[in-house]
Design brief:
This protein is 23% helix and 28% strand. By secondary structure, the protein is α+β, with helices and mostly antiparallel strands. The protein is globular. The N and C termini lie far apart (58 Å).
Length: 321
């Protein structure tokens, strides 16, 4: 069922009915699809101010929509499409080279560190904008996000049916979609698997910067850390997460006293300085390595992998045993 915008009083206000295949999509992501070129900061602003309504009532950015819901979208002034320009040639080439898997429904990339998942907050082009510029006639929607400084596997849906099914799997908190990360944690972790079951709360610092803390008022969050090797007094670990909270691995690692190496927000400044000066670690050592799930009600399995970023491999080599 296609989107059905209807004119409404107020000149420029639109009432858009949510198609059935968008059921479960977050309101902010739905609005980004409706307001092509709008920065995410603007989307959050119009939601917070109450200008966006769902079935006549105010809603939060993270509200999950249902098929048939009616979304009121106010008129917004957007930059002309041509004014933003296009991603630079080097970014387009890097994105094309980062593709690790593609079929008729999905495209997966190994995202380089330093590239945001999407534009906004002063960033013109993230992964999704660059992929859309690379494939201008191909529908593309982010299935999930990675922090700007995290490298590794990101999955993009080329069909709405695949997007809806994957987002439903993600809401099962680990039951339907398994994610594996690789990280270097400061200090010597104990052997075996350390499970961290600690709720996380997202707060805002002055200036709007997100900061996450372990807090009983937060959302349930579960991570499993397992040491693969010990290098240079630090711990190279596999991390599996059963929930997908903002900055989850980074905050859980800090919580157990072994922050992720190179983490400027939650890490140990002295450890980061030593690793930067002596080993050349200039970024967050966190990499999304693999994802496993099945589509078509479990009938079609996917196992997607992104090899460890070359600059992180080099750091492990320099750390020695």
């Amino acid at each position: 069922m296609p989107d059905a915008p209807r004119a409404a009083a107020g000149g420029g206000v639109r009432l858009v009915r949510v198609p059935d295949d968008r059921a479960g999509q977050r309101l902010d992501n739905f609005l980004l699809g409706q307001l092509k070129g709008a920065p995410k900061s603007l989307v959050y602003k119009i939601v917070r101010s109450g200008q966006v309504r769902v079935n006549g009532g105010r809603a939060r950015a993270e509200t999950r929509l249902e098929g048939g819901d009616e979304v009121r979208i106010p008129p917004v002034r957007l930059t002309e499409p041509g004014d933003k320009g296009q991603p630079g040639k080097s970014l387009l080439e890097a994105m094309a080279a980062s593709i690790v898997f593609e079929d008729t429904r999905l495209l997966a990339i190994s995202k380089p560190s330093g590239i945001a998942s999407h534009g906004g907050s002063g960033i013109s082009f993230g992964v999704i904008e660059t992929l859309r510029a690379l494939r201008p006639n191909q529908p593309m929607e982010l299935v999930h996000r990675l922090d700007r400084d995290t490298s590794g596997l990101m999955v993009v849906a080329k069909k709405r049916s695949a997007l809806a099914e994957l987002q439903a799997l993600m809401r099962e908190d680990g039951a339907g979609l398994r994610k594996r990360y690789l990280a270097l944690l400061a200090g010597r972790m104990p052997g075996g698997v350390m499970s961290v079951d600690a709720p996380l709360h997202v707060g805002l610092r002055q200036g709007g910067e997100r900061h996450v803390q372990v807090n009983e008022a937060g959302k349930a969050s579960l991570s499993h850390f397992r040491v693969l090797e010990r290098r240079g007094g630090h711990s190279y670990c596999e991390v599996r997460i059963e929930t997908g909270r903002t900055h989850q691995i980074r905050v859980h690692a800090q919580h157990i006293g072994h922050p992720v190496a190179g983490d400027d927000k939650y890490g140990d400044p002295d450890v980061n300085k030593r690793l930067r000066e002596q080993i050349g670690l200039k970024r967050l050592f966190l990499h999304a390595a693999s994802m496993e799930f099945a589509l078509d009600a479990g009938r079609v399995p996917y196992v997607l992998n992104a090899p460890l970023a070359p600059e992180l491999l080099a750091v492990l080599d320099r750390l020695g045993s």
